[in-house]
Design brief:
The protein has about 250 residues and is α/β, with parallel strands linked by helices. Helix content is about 45%, strand content about 20%. Helix 10 links the parallel strand 8 and strand 9. It is globular, with a radius of gyration of 18 Å. The protein starts with a helix and ends with a helix.
Length: about 250
């Protein structure tokens, strides 16, 4: 796996897939999440969790991140998805990336190189990324000043202090798919309370793992702002993303 990942990075074969994000208020797709994928000639399609885990252990996650950001920026600069109503692409940042005190400078260099407005980019961090609260807040504020936004990803899987989380410049919180599924199984009846809490904090809510019209309707009625999941689309290669985005036209 390490050799396959190293080869892919050297040959710049890390692929980017997009999964659309639907706006409840606007009734259409308005954003997408960029997801790294690895298809090795010998191993075939490698599950993301597997190669990302290896990349984090070897330190290659830094280069994976650079290649993903570069591909997203190249796509925005060339295809202008905002013309089809897709105004923001979300990019995941790993905990290891967030511990890099040059993170904001490196990301800014890539985005500037492609001439992409920072407003087109949303960075997703997890609760485990906030090991050094001062460092990540400083990096986030630097990028926020340029126009980028931030989401707290996979909320419901960690145990971080909410007061510390809300001290960060976070515009969106993403409810983890397991939390959403637990609610619909009757095991997480507190989900509406979480929605109201984040509404009071003026943080927009994205729910992941939505697969049915019933889930969409219930979450929209609950007050969730954005919906992501197989109900709208599985992650698709960049080459097929135009097909998904064109549904807005």
């Amino acid at each position: 796996m390490e050799s396959a990942l190293s080869r892919a990075l050297q040959e710049q074969r890390i692929e980017v897939y997009f999964q659309p994000i639907y706006s409840v208020r606007e009734g259409r797709i308005i954003a997408a999440e960029a997801l790294a994928r690895l298809n090795d000639p010998q191993l075939g399609f490698v599950p993301p969790d597997e190669f990302i885990r290896v990349a984090e252990r070897t330190g290659d996650i830094m280069e994976v991140g650079r290649q993903v950001v570069s591909q997203v920026c190249a796509f925005i600069a060339k295809e202008h998805p905002e013309q089809k109503g897709v105004h923001r692409i979300s990019i995941n940042l790993s905990p290891m990336q967030c511990m890099n005190d040059q993170l904001a400078a490196e990301l800014s260099d890539i985005i500037d190189r492609y001439g992409v407005p920072f407003e087109r980019i949303n960075f997703e961090i997890t609760e485990s990324s906030i090991e050094d609260h001062y460092l990540i807040r400083k990096q986030m504020l630097t990028l926020k000043e340029r126009g980028a936004d931030f989401s707290l990803d996979d909320f419901g899987t960690g145990t971080s202090n909410l007061v510390r989380l809300l001290d960060l410049p976070i515009g969106f919180v993403k409810f983890d798919r397991n939390l959403v599924n637990s609610y619909f199984k009757g095991d997480a009846n507190f989900l509406p309370d979480l929605v109201r809490m984040f509404q009071k904090a003026r943080v927009l809510i994205v729910t992941e793992g939505v697969e049915t019209a019933k889930m969409l309707g219930n979450l929209a009625a609950m007050g969730c702002d954005y919906i992501q999941g197989y109900y709208f689309s599985k992650p698709v290669p960049i080459s097929r993303s135009e097909e998904r985005f064109s549904r807005n036209a």
